[in-house]
Structure formats: C-alpha cells, structure tokens
Design brief:
Blueprint: H1 12-47, E1 55-61, E2 64-66, E3 69-72, E4 76-82, E5 91-92, E6 115-120, E7 124-129, E8 137-142
Parallel strand pairs: 1-4, 3-8
Antiparallel strand pairs: 1-2, 4-6, 5-7, 7-8
Bound molecules: copper (II) ion (CU).
Length: 143
C-alpha cells in the first residue's frame, strides 16, 4: 500500500502553489469586471451632454463669433477668446438700456489673446454683439 493522501498525492509545495493560483484568480476577477465598466463610464462622461458647471468656448475670429450660437444648461460658463488681430467685445444686447444689469454683461474691449468668462445661471435667450463691430453677433441659449 502506498501512502497516497486524499488530495491525490500533492506535495506541500504543490498545494501551496495551487492555493496561490486560486488567490490570484480572485484578485484578477474584480479588475476584469470593473475595469471596462470604469473605462466606459469615463468615456460616457466626455461624450454625453454637458454637465452642470462645464465650460464652453466661443472664439472671436475672422470678425465673427465661432460658434455664433451656443446652447447650454444653467450653470455653464461661456469663455470668449479673442483669436483675431483686433479688439472685440462680448456685450449683451440689453447692456446699455437694461435696468436689470444682473442679466446683462460687457467684456469691454479684449485685446488679441485675451479672454472673458461669464457663468449663465438663468434660463433664457441672451443675444450679444461686439461694440467695435456691431455686425458681429451671437446668442447664448440657456435651457
Ligand atoms: Cu469686434
């Protein structure tokens, strides 16, 4: 009669290796399941609708606002960037005559390379223009 054991004659070392192999599988499992999920989640955040608190950029280039119309959720900040060789402003249409200055804005002249940022918290349609070149017009829609 041989001295076979119940586990099929594995040595102490073989049993230890088998245990550590199983342990490694259990560690790898959550990474295999959660890894792609986390990765996909990160991509969805970038691809999906603008989140509250985001920033959108409007360029002043070629004597135009590009894009001339932006639609954003409340809480979004619009940043105007002057990429022309001449000064521009971002001035809301009602800035001069408005009694409610809170909803109006004026960047005053921005030199080439300068930026102006404004956060839009109120829903509505906000047309604006450039005081230097009044034919430069744009609109921010907050909805
Ligand atoms: Cu201008």
């Amino acid at each position: 009669m041989s001295k076979r054991t119940r586990d099929g004659g594995m040595t102490w070392r073989q049993r230890a290796q088998a245990r550590s192999h199983v342990a490694r599988l259990w560690l790898a499992l959550p990474v295999a399941i959660l890894g792609p999920a986390l990765w996909a989640g990160g991509c969805n955040r970038q691809r999906g609708a603008l989140a509250r608190g985001s920033t959108v950029e409007v360029q002043m280039v070629g004597l135009r606002f590009v894009p001339s119309a932006v639609t954003i959720p409340p809480g979004t900040t619009v940043v105007w960037v002057n990429r022309d060789n001449t000064a521009h402003t971002s001035t809301s249409d009602g800035w001069r005559k408005s009694k409610n200055q809170a909803d109006e804005w004026n960047s005053f002249p921005l030199s080439p390379g300068q930026t102006f940022a404004r956060q839009f918290d109120t829903r509505g349609t906000f047309p604006y223009y450039c005081m230097v070149h009044p034919y430069m017009q744009g609109v921010v829609t907050v909805q």
